């Protein structure tokens, strides 16, 4: 037991020296930073969905979107900076942000797969899939909200834009399911 304790102390010392030499931040810091970026992207996407909903509702009555209480106050900093955009432009931006969020999820899945492979060689591996599952579920939830808004606005999008959007939606969902 004493030999094990000495070896453990030596290995911990070597690990500390390597980290000190390379000035690397802990892996948990990078993972937390990535989670925050993903969360911010999802919030931005949900904001876009609320903007689309407000624009769709506002086309029926202009005053409805402005008297929204808490939502109107929350949207005003970003919405006040630029004039209101057209519905197709907002939807295209939201779909682009959805695709970026999908790429982040797929990147995290690929990293997890690689870490699992390296674990076979003795590398440390955190087997907890809960954060990855939560990320996928959040993205799919936003996907369905955006898809619902697009289908509700299908008459306003026209016959040329709607099929392209639906194709992009199908690609997002199929790539998530396949990987």
UniProtKB/TrEMBL annotation:
GO terms for biological process: signal transduction. One of its GO terms (molecular function) is DNA-binding transcription factor activity. Residues 94-153 form the STAT transcription factor all-alpha domain. SUPFAM superfamilies: STAT. Residues 59-80 are annotated as: Disordered. It comes from the Eukaryota. Keywords: SH2 domain. Residues 60-72 have a biased composition (Gly residues). PANTHER family: SIGNAL TRANSDUCER AND ACTIVATOR OF TRANSCRIPTION. This is STAT6 protein. It comes from Cepphus grylle (Black guillemot).
């Amino acid at each position: 037991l004493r030999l094990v304790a000495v070896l453990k102390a030596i290995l911990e010392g070597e690990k500390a020296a390597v980290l000190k030499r390379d000035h690397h931040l802990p892996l948990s810091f990078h993972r937390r930073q990535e989670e925050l970026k993903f969360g911010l992207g999802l919030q931005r996407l949900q904001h876009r969905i609320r903007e689309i909903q407000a624009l769709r509702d506002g086309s029926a009555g202009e005053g409805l979107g402005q008297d929204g209480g808490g939502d109107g106050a929350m949207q005003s900093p970003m919405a006040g900076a630029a004039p209101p955009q057209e519905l197709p432009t907002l939807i295209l931006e939201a779909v682009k942000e959805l695709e970026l969020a999908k790429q982040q999820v797929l990147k995290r899945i690929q990293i997890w797969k690689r870490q699992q492979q390296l674990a076979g060689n003795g590398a440390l591996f955190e087997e907890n899939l809960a954060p990855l599952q939560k990320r996928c579920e959040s993205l799919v939830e936003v996907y369905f909200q955006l898809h619902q808004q697009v289908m509700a606005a299908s008459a306003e999008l026209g016959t040329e834009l709607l099929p392209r959007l639906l194709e992009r939606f199908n690609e997002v969902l199929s790539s998530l399911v396949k990987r």
